[in-house]
Amino acid sequence: MTLRLFSYFRSSASYRVRIALAVKGLPYEYVAVHLMKGHQKEDAHHARNPLEQIPALELEIEGKTHVVAQSLAILELLEELHPSPALLPKDLFLRCRARELAELVNAGIQPHQNLTTMGRLDALEKGAGRKSAIHYNEVGLTTFEERVKETAGLYAIGDSPSFADVCLVPQMYSARRFDIDVASRYPTLTRIDHALNELPGFAAAHPDRQPDAAA
Amino acid sequence: MTLRLFSYFRSSASYRVRIALAVKGLPYEYVAVHLMKGHQKEDAHHARNPLEQIPALELEIEGKTHVVAQSLAILELLEELHPSPALLPKDLFLRCRARELAELVNAGIQPHQNLTTMGRLDALEKGAGRKSAIHYNEVGLTTFEERVKETAGLYAIGDSPSFADVCLVPQMYSARRFDIDVASRYPTLTRIDHALNELPGFAAAHPDRQPDAAA
Q1: How many Cα atoms sit within 13 Å of B195 on the Cβ side?
Q2: A108, B50: Cβ pair inside 8 Å?
Q3: I want to staple B180 with a disulfide (CB 3.0 to 4.6 A). Which of A1, A129, B74, B175 is the partner?
Q4: End-to-end Cα spacing for chain A
């Protein structure tokens, strides 16, 4: 069966899953769920994902159709189903570090920049949502920049892309949208991000190249 | 070498790692890092974890000493180093679901209830931090309650504890501290939480039983 990805072009969590699918060479049907119009809250999407979030991936596992959610859980599943090319190093410490950096973005930055969170803050004070999102982007990326120096090669962990990179590229895209001067503040991350964006899988997953990009 | 866990008794992310260590029967030295006094920001802790967060776990992997961070990355590492007793099901879909539920707590609730986040909100409006933490606890646990019905047995995924349970128990503890009436609102989660707390590993990890509990 065809994989179906429920995605929104600018959603950084969707972007992560698009990268993993493309790097692993898995074709999929793209189903656009318009976050700004609240389509993730409609009945059809709630039925497939009561989390009312994207990304959600519909796929067949051992003969049964499932819809799975949460980008990092999806990445782990794709790694187990399609181990090659790998997005986790073999070395146990480095595997852990790849996941740590992924979580630094997933739990440390992204929850503070999603539309709902920002909207709730704006209701308290105009502009507070954006200000807070910028704060957490800066704190998280500063830590990522410091931490990544211990393991970086061409990419975050040596010379093969990993979960850390899969999360980094969408976050750098978000940070630029918040007008954070990433090039001067995070030189190591900027170099890695640039190298990653030259890889076909990462390039194909870019928001500008998605069917709903103009929406 | 002895494992060393940098922990704070009430930190829900530390609580998760304590559960995993106890379930897997791994003894460790408990090093208290007082979050309310900002000890996680001191130089000694920054050197071991530039994320300035707890939990952090010092351990030896393939002959080398490392400090690893981010609770879910630590859980994955412990699962790889000490696969038995397992905290992930064997079935690929259920493994994904266990991780999805864990992330629902880790990325969906916890970032909104940590002390820094609440402090920033309180600076905008008195009481806003607590109000927001309660909101995200309620949204996340409502979703968890709905989602878990598909897989629940004695615990969140069938009859063996998994990452989903490791994250659920500390979250239920937090929700009660926010005076959320979990018993009436989340009957399935309450039943599972009760069953889990009767397991020796989960019981040993409870905040009240930690060396810094009185601090």
Answers
A1: 17
A2: no
A3: B175
A4: 28
Q: Are A176 and A190 in contact (CB under 8 A)?
A: no
The ipTM of this complex is 0.96
Q: Could you say which of A70, A77, A93 has the minimum Cβ distance to residue B66?
A: A93
The pair of structure tokens assigned to A57 is 């991936």
DSSP string, B6-45: EE-TT-HHHHHHHHHHHHTT--EEEEE--GGGTGGGSHHH
Task: Specify whether the backbone of B56 is left (phi greater than 0), alpha (psi in -120 to 50) or beta.
Answer: beta
| Tens-place pLDDT, residues A181-214 | 999 999 999 999 999 999 999 999 999 999 999 7
Q: Give tens-digit pLDDT for B62-82.
A: 899 999 999 999 999 999 999
pLDDT for the residue numbered A40: 76
Q: CA dist A135 to A129, A140, B121, Å?
A: 10, 9, 13
A3 in helix, strand or coil?
Answer: strand
pTM: 0.96
Q: From A71, A97, A69, A76, select the one nearest A158 (Cα to Cα).
A: A97
Beta carbons of B124 and A120 less than 8 Å apart: no
Residue B191 has pLDDT above 90, yes or no: yes
B171 and B24 in contact (C-beta within 8 Å)? Answer: no
Task: Report how far residue A168's alpha carbon sits from residue A189's, in angstroms, rounded to the nearest whole number.
Answer: 8
In a mutational test of the A interface, the residue from B79, B100, B110, B120 whose CB has the highest number of chain A CBs within 10 Å is B100
The chain A residue lying nearest B80, using CA atoms, is A92
Question: What number of C-beta contacts closer than 8 Å exist between A and B?
Answer: 125
B124 in Cβ contact with A125 (< 8 Å): yes
Tell me the pLDDT tens digit for each residue of A68-83.
999 999 999 999 999 9
Q: Please provide the distance, in angstroms rounded to a whole number, between the alpha carbons at the two ends of chain B.
A: 28
For CA atoms A112, A113, A118, A121, the dihedral sign is: positive
Q: Which residues are CB-contacts of B104 (< 8 A; sequence separation ≥ 6)?
A: A51, A70, B140, B143, B144, B147, B167
For A39, the token pair is: 């389509």
